[in-house]
Specification:
By secondary structure, the protein is of the alpha+beta class. Helices cover about 35% and strands about 40% of the residues.
């Protein structure tokens, strides 16, 4: 009887710890702090945009997309448009709140002092598809493009 009780208590302890760890940020705010410039995107088959787009098309995309994280604020610049809001880390999920809406926007794949790799969060992919996002990349479906890893370099 004591043995069964010890096993049950051990299982409860393990399950209890797992839930707490899921809510802890997998990455720190300090790691994300700064301005990040998009440099490439890796598709699920391992190919990079820089390898499959024409040089002119790839270069036209450079210096157009930035993510800036300062304190609890995140801003995303794409071309001439900038959107800002507050952000929160939940595990490896970046949740952004702006204009009264909250979105689980990104999953952090990897972060170092110089590089950041992000994927669209599954919730946000569903929202984009519901809003009619399509693939303009020849030979790749919208799902393949949305499953790609976006690669950023730190610029400050």
């Amino acid at each position: 009887m004591k043995r069964i009780l010890l096993i049950a208590l051990s299982m409860i302890a393990i399950i209890g710890c797992s839930k707490k760890e899921d809510d802890k940020p997998a990455f720190t705010q300090e790691q994300l702090e700064g301005r990040w410039k998009w440099v490439d995107t890796r598709l699920p088959d391992g190919k990079l945009f820089s390898q499959i787009l024409s040089t002119q098309d790839y270069r036209s995309r450079l210096n157009r997309v930035f993510i800036t994280i300062r304190g609890n604020t995140a801003s995303i610049t794409s071309g001439e448009d900038t959107s800002s809001g507050t952000y929160k880390l939940i595990g490896s999920t970046v949740q952004i709140s702006a204009e009264g809406e909250t979105h689980n926007m990104y999953e952090i794949v990897k972060v170092t002092k110089e590089n950041l790799e992000l994927k669209w969060h599954n919730d946000f992919k569903k929202e984009m598809k519901a809003n009619g996002v399509t693939s303009t990349l020849s030979g790749y479906s919208v799902d393949q493009v949305l499953d790609a890893v976006q690669i950023y370099n730190k610029v400050d």
